[in-house]
Amino acid sequence: MNSWEELRKQARKLENDIDVKLTCLSKLGTGSHGLKSSESDTEPLLSADHMIESTASEIESLLVKLSDTNEKMSDIMAEGGKDAAAIHTLQRHKEILEDYKKELNKTINNIQSRKDREQLMHSVRKDIDSYKNSTSKLNRRMDMYLKENEHIRASDRLVQDQIQIVLDTREHLTSQRQHLKRLHTRLHDISSKFPLLTSLIPRIT
Description:
The chain is an all-alpha fold. It contains four helices and no strands. The model is unreliable at 33-45 (pLDDT under 50). It is found in: Golgi apparatus membrane.
């Protein structure tokens, strides 16, 4: 059976190891673990999941060992022969254990919250990109429709212009026929008054 001093040293070593691992886990959770991606200065949290899970598992294992060590120290304490300082030391080790458990849970929750935010942001960016693409396609389609509409309007104006030319020509021809008819009538009247001009009318008309 380990002595009180050996257990105390073991507890201190476990506490130091846990403290280092918790610091490492916290850095992993914030992306400050020295890794770099091609798009940013820090590695995205989603790509470091395996490192986070591994570190958290190691911390949990160390916490179990620390808890066992504290239990062994409690057993020695129950046998008696320890002063108030030893009692205070054991109590302090138990408090540190509880603090580390709380810190681990807090860190894991923070990491999960950050992971959820990154997933949400990724989803939002994806939706925005999709919207931009659909908007771009819609704009191109609208441009095509506008050009087609302008082409139709131009064709319509051309047809209207041609119709107007035909109407103007028809009106002009009608006016000419009326003018010639009036002229023919006058010549006929003149020939009636002047028979000698009868022979000239066919030549004129």
